[in-house]
Amino acid sequence: MKTTRQITILGSTGSIGISTLDVIARHPDRFQAFALTANNNVEKMLSQCQRFQPRFAVMLDRGSSKQLASAIKTANIKTEVLSGIESLEKVASLPEVDTVMAAIVGAAGIRPTFAAAQAGKLVLLANKETLVMAGRIFTDLVKQHHATLLPIDSEHNAIYQSLPHHFNGNLVTAGISHILLTASGGPFRCAPLDSLETVTPEQACAHPNWDMGEKISVDSATMMNKGLEVIEAHWLFEAPPDKIQVVIHPQSVIHSMVAYVDGSVIAQLGNPDMRTPIAHAMGYPERIESGVSALDMFKVAHLDFEEPDFERFPCLDLAYQALRTGGNMPAVLNAANEIAVESFLQKRMAFTAIPTMIRHVMQTIQYEEMMTLDDVLRTDRLARAESHEWLANLQ
């Protein structure tokens, strides 16, 4: 008899969290939402609690948790409301929890994701920053505590599906030549370079294929999103930078590929819908229904591929530089990018200033090795402070 798998969703009100709940709703005999977490979206969290009746709801923002607790009581829902980062760590590591969907956007998701790994959970990783900022520390923790790590990013999930079943992290013994990481190119792939200076947040967030949150949409427009994925792929698949090739594929039908030494290239295809990789990871090793419509190859008709232009996408080049440098530099890159994107969305600086800020911060902060999570978080604070100082001087 199968038992219902208890799932904590870190970031349930975001796009990944909503898609995860959609898959859970399709399989009530398999999955139960044990805990839902969010930053401050009380209205959406209340709606989710009403429908899924989780045991816990955690709001990172304490004021929002008080509002939610009052609304939960009024609605006579039995969900217990908690608040703060410690509560996020708690619901990610409780013994009752089988699986943790790590989908909090930004550095705020690192600590609860670490807590899940330390508790030996099945970690479905959608939070980029955990691997970007603390790749070696986190992967060592996963191995040490016998946790299981499955990637949720459509590209990394596609690579995972295209690897041999016996893959143990050694590209050579697996006969792998290199990894091909696909990218849509975002909304400005063909825009004149001199037009990028006046890009608005609304334009940057209008992704041609995917329905995503604001931050990740801007990252896609700059291709920093792909740069962060290159760093993630390095840690997930133990691939050196020169074995990870980014390919622009505007249709977003092929989600990534693995090239083998015999000339074969294995790809994973599908409609651009995050429920596919989510359902793959939630059901693994079985296949379960996701709600995504079947890919119509006749409607697709043709597939295009382009080499990325580093002049158009300097953020991608900066990410490769950070990976090759190693140490604290990926964490510096990530922190500076978060502040840059936030400032752009607030219309405090131009779209083209995003890589300028990041480059300045990377050149200003000295290289050092990262040995502990505290080292990573200290670097994050330092890079954010330097980013704010650069922005203040700009204005």
Automatic annotation (TrEMBL):
Under which pathway is this protein filed?
Answer: Isoprenoid biosynthesis; isopentenyl diphosphate biosynthesis via DXP pathway; isopentenyl diphosphate from 1-deoxy-D-xylulose 5-phosphate: step 1/6
Q: Which GO terms describe its biological process?
A: isopentenyl diphosphate biosynthetic process, methylerythritol 4-phosphate pathway involved in terpenoid biosynthetic process
Q: Per the entry, which co-factors are needed?
A: Mg(2+); Mn(2+)
Tell me which domain of life the UniProt entry assigns to the organism this sequence originates from: Bacteria
Q: Which family does it belong to?
A: Belongs to the DXR family.
State if Coiled coil is listed as a keyword: no
Q: Which organism is it from?
A: Nitrosomonas ureae
Question: What gene, per UniProt, encodes this protein?
Answer: dxr
Q: What is this protein called?
A: 1-deoxy-D-xylulose 5-phosphate reductoisomerase
State the Gene Ontology terms under molecular function.
1-deoxy-D-xylulose-5-phosphate reductoisomerase activity; isomerase activity; manganese ion binding; NADPH binding
Q: Which reaction does it catalyse?
A: 2-C-methyl-D-erythritol 4-phosphate + NADP(+) = 1-deoxy-D-xylulose 5-phosphate + NADPH + H(+)
Q: Which InterPro entries match?
A: DXP_reductoisomerase, DXP_reductoisomerase_C, DXP_reductoisomerase_N, DXPR_C, DXPR_C_sf, NAD(P)-bd_dom_sf
Q: Which Pfam families match?
A: DXP_redisom_C, DXP_reductoisom, DXPR_C
Domain (DXP reductoisomerase C-terminal): residue spans on this chain: 269-385
Domain 1-deoxy-D-xylulose 5-phosphate reductoisomerase N-terminal intervals: 7-135
HAMAP family, alphabetically? Answer: DXP_reductoisom (MF_00183)
The EC number(s) this enzyme carries: 1.1.1.267
> Which residues are recorded as binding 1-deoxy-D-xylulose 5-phosphate?
K128, S154, E155, S184, H207, S220, N225, K226, E229
Keywords associated with the record: Isomerase, Isoprene biosynthesis, Magnesium, Manganese, Metal-binding, NADP, Oxidoreductase
**Record carries keyword Ribonucleoprotein:** no
Residue numbers binding Mn(2+): D153, E155, E229
Q: Report the residue ranges that make up the 1-deoxy-D-xylulose 5-phosphate reductoisomerase C-terminal domain in this protein.
A: 149-237
User: What functional role does this protein have?
Assistant: Catalyzes the NADPH-dependent rearrangement and reduction of 1-deoxy-D-xylulose-5-phosphate (DXP) to 2-C-methyl-D-erythritol 4-phosphate (MEP).
**Residues holding NADPH:** T13, G14, S15, I16, N41, N127, E129, G213
